[in-house]
Specification:
Largest sheet: 5 strands, mixed
Mean pLDDT: 88
Structural class: alpha/beta
Low-confidence stretches: none
Shape: elongated
CATH architecture of the largest domain: 2-Layer Sandwich
Radius of gyration: 18 Å
């Protein structure tokens, strides 16, 4: 298994080569990186891992949420490479990456919510543990509706803009808790989780679609 992992959706993007046992090479990329820089960065990654294009067995790509153009570029790259190399591809939702990073011990998911800012008045939310009943899948909500849903101290993980952090911190104070402001629980690094995480993805011959997640 030699997988090219592409994440241009996250605030801290990542290109990585992953085997069953380890991440053999990785490159953290900025969302402001120009399209013309992408392929040279991938080729440099292959050289570091002493890997050729034909050595790749699969491609995995984070399909969203994230910046409109960042997602499109990442998905287009994954689709093009998978087609040209004749290898299967898998689409990965960013919330699943975070879910894997917070698993510990017996891999029981903790009671947290994953949050991702999309606009100043909107965000995505997905619940884990006890919160899964309320938000079983990544859901697009207004910030106002989310704040009104907070009835008790709540821990969160994910990527929030400063305005959302401030609003959520204020809501936390109402309930006498700082849990909302700490981003707890601590997360495992991508290098720790990617080898096992990749083994549980569904790779197949397909054309990936960007995930924007907005219902209105």
């Amino acid at each position: 298994m030699r997988i090219l992992y592409i994440d241009l959706a996250s605030n801290k993007g990542l290109l990585a080569l992953v085997t069953e046992k380890s991440v053999t090479a990785s490159d953290h990329v900025d969302q402001r990186m120009g399209d013309q820089e992408l392929m040279p960065r991938v080729e440099a990654l292959l050289q570091i891992a002493n890997c050729k294009w034909d050595d790749l067995t699969q491609i995995a790509c984070v399909i969203g949420p994230g910046g409109f153009m960042s997602i499109r570029v990442g998905v287009a790259l994954a689709n093009t490479l998978a087609d040209q190399l004749g290898i299967p591809v898998a689409g990965v939702h960013l919330s699943d990456v975070y879910a894997e990073r917070m698993q510990k011990g017996k891999r029981k998911k903790q009671d947290v919510v994953w949050l991702h800012s999309t606009k100043k008045t909107e965000l995505f939310v997905r619940g884990f543990g006890d919160y899964k009943k309320q938000w079983p899948e990544a859901t697009h909500v207004t910030l106002e509706d989310f704040l009104q849903s907070i009835k008790k101290p709540m821990q969160w993980i994910g990527e929030l803009i400063p305005e959302h952090r401030t609003a959520i911190a204020s809501a936390a104070e109402v309930h006498g808790s700082t849990a909302l402001t700490t981003g707890e629980p601590p997360l495992l690094s991508l290098e720790e989780i990617l080898p096992n995480f990749m083994q549980h993805q569904e790779f197949k011959q397909q054309i990936l679609e960007p995930w924007y997640g907005r219902g209105w």
